[in-house]
Amino acid sequence: ATKGSPTCLAKILGIYQVTSKHLKGGKESKMDVLVMENLLFRRNLTRLYDLKGSSRSRYNPDSSGSNKVLLDQNLIEAMLTSPIFVGNKAKRLLERAVWNDTSFLASIDVMDYSLLVGIDEEKHEVVLGIIDFMRQYTWDKHLETWVKASGFLWW
Questions:
Q1: CA atoms of 31 and 47, how far apart (whole Å)
Q2: Where is the signal peptide (predicted)?
């Protein structure tokens, strides 16, 4: 990406390796942890969407209650009664940022990510960012996705 280009990628604040030692047996386990900015900090969101650009299995039937994350089909349904209005300048900036980000992610073989969209109706603001973009789409990821979808496991 060019310096100064608009982006929606959530900022990575740090990558850490955490080691824990179990009290019984002394077995150690390591976990890599990625810390990203909290796009929702100090926001009072009335709707929150995790969008992947697909309608297949992307509907949350339980949309009641606070902190419910809605999906692509929920957004399509909501646009009929509660559309999200964005000014022309903001729309062009958003389109440019998404184009930049998705082109960059595709160039490094990252194909699995989400656009997080939050609506703050009180402040009339839309908060968004591209999240979960740290894994390349490799054959093992493709296999994992297929196994989860089919419920089939072989040795």
A1: 32
A2: none
